[in-house]
Amino acid sequence: MFNKILIANRGEIACRVIKTARKMGIKTVAVYSDADKNALHVQMADEAVHIGPPPANQSYIVIDKIMEAIRATGAEAVHPGYGFLSENAKFAEALEAAGVAFIGPPKVAIEAMGDKITSKKLAQEANVSTVPGYMGLIEDADEAVKISGQIGYPVMIKASAGGGGKGMRIAWNDAEAREGFQSSKNEAASSFGDDRIFIEKFVTQPRHIEIQVLADKHGNTVYLHERECSIQRRNQKVVEEAPSPFLDPETRAAMGKQACALAAAVGYSSAGTVEFIVDGDKNFYFLEMNTRLQVEHPVTELITGVDLVEQMIRVAAGEKLPFAQEDIKLEGWAIENRLYAEDPYRGFLPSIGRLTRYRPPVEVAAGPMAEAGTWHGEAETGKTAVRNDTGVYEGGEISMFYDPMIAKLCTWGPDRATAIEAMRNALDTFEVEGIGHNLPFVAAVMDHPKFISGEMTTAFIAEEYPDGFEGVTLPENEVTRVMAAAAAMYRVSEIRRARVSGRMDNHNRTVGTHWVVKIGDRSETVDIVADPMGATVNFAGGPSMRVKGGWVPGMSLAEVTVDDVPLTMKVEKKTSGYRLRHRGADLRVFIRTERQAELAALMPEKLPPDTSKLLLCPMPGLVVSLAVAEGDEVQEGQALCTVEAMKMENILRAERAGTVVAIRAEIGASLGVDEIIMEFE
Fold first, then answer.
1. Residue 174 and residue 667: Cα distance in Å, rounded?
2. At CA 263, angle to CA 260 and CA 266, rounded to 5?
3. I need a labelling partner for 244 at 20 to 30 A (CA). Which of 20, 516, 527, 607 fits?
4. Catalytic residue selected from 12, 76, 288, 296
5. Which domain holds residue 350?
6. Is 572 among the catalytic positions?
7. Are residues 411 and 457 in the same domain?
8. Greatest Cα pair distance in the chain
């Protein structure tokens, strides 16, 4: 076994590999750019080597710099994580030439299956059903438009060396094919150092289901069941689960056997994933094979008890798999939500900055991983499991240079409904402040009827949130519960404030019991009767609710019960009330005396400033190109400029017809949120 391994990656996956290596008694080496000098993976590793400036193409994907770090530290093996150099055959070749083990598949397998074009050709030769498409290289946008027309719209334009949603566009017409080709090509070059593009038919209403395979160097290959990854945004997975709620045992076995056969045909070893599109009749079509560890691998680990990183290391060291196919169990259900530094209220645009608060839920061990002893946490075993794979910490910075993922929150339960409920509770207790993030959105997904029923496709987000995410509207009975809890909490705060100010010399002398609670357009008058065990909140002409809990002023998380039913809310003190967040809803709660409520109703509403004649930068990013000049007339929907953030290009378009009177930003400028790019008349 290896004594020291280097992780040629950063963030969450580097931390994940370090945890397993530490469990195995293997020392670790981290690499880091200028932007990551204080990163969590650097702190966790036994050694760390600086490899260059923040852009990945000047640090993390420069093979020579990684090789220098290996030589300097004496690392015997390298785990590439995912992305960056994980599917780079030249990197595997360089390691082999240096006598360093690659904790991944052989170079020939990377070349055969890591390249999306070659893998499709090999799949066709092996009589595997594939999605119709053009497998040759595409030289320019004109050829892309011609091929797209021949295949038939809609089409998917994809980077040959791509992954993680990078370098992918859906085109529904010639204009989108032309534009998508160039954007995909640019993103592919930036993210992977390989700008080759191919085009395939975009199958409408598909389900994205993938098979996890694991193979050793002795001819043994197994599959560890499937993952459902249908809930995606811009081809980037957001929610994953294992197993799929759609598959039956027969289809699962057929897909697993086909995935193993494909892996064996190219002499595959290590962990890999075979991705399929599955239609409503359970017909499945090979998409691609990812010759690396997948982001969503924790859900597979949670239902099987297999530590995939450990097995990758052992396979690289020449060991045989310790189990056969019949030994791989499928127990319970696991859900993963990816926490991204993306603001769902601003069209999921990237958000950067300091994590002023980062408090994930307590990790709890349960299920196959706990039974197999492959759990990384130290929490006591419970009926449900909570796991949080992360690469950040409170006070750390979210950079504009890399993937926006903050953490992967996973839950396990003996069945799907239990796993979903565990996820809801975990999301309620996950505190993230300082940046925009998608916690409210994934919380909304967990309560969505289509997700609960398991009847979702890859079009879920586009169909259910066509105008973007505007928050969650709680049912009226849940709003009533929140009102009751907020009123009881506010009374406690007022008692504390009165005592501190010296206005209260005896219990409850100067704090009233009669309040008006307002959320949105709804106002309720309540009367509070308190005792040492809690408070009863009586609604005028309505119900009475019993509120109990240990919340005290200053706590950012309220975990109370309302009529003995748990209610968890994130709490931020505001004038005359709170900002409360619960189950994806972001609520401004006002709690006033009746006289204060009367006066507040007379206050005029403050209107936002008029920005209709300005193009504002919607997220922190770099101006890559300007498509117009001063004096140009533009039409609604016309491309104005391109801003790059977190490795993704974002084309900003005109909202209405007009004339450009001033351009306030230059190509190459680094802009913050709401900085002016151009003005119109």
1. 27
2. 145
3. 20
4. 288
5. 207-462
6. no
7. yes
8. 86
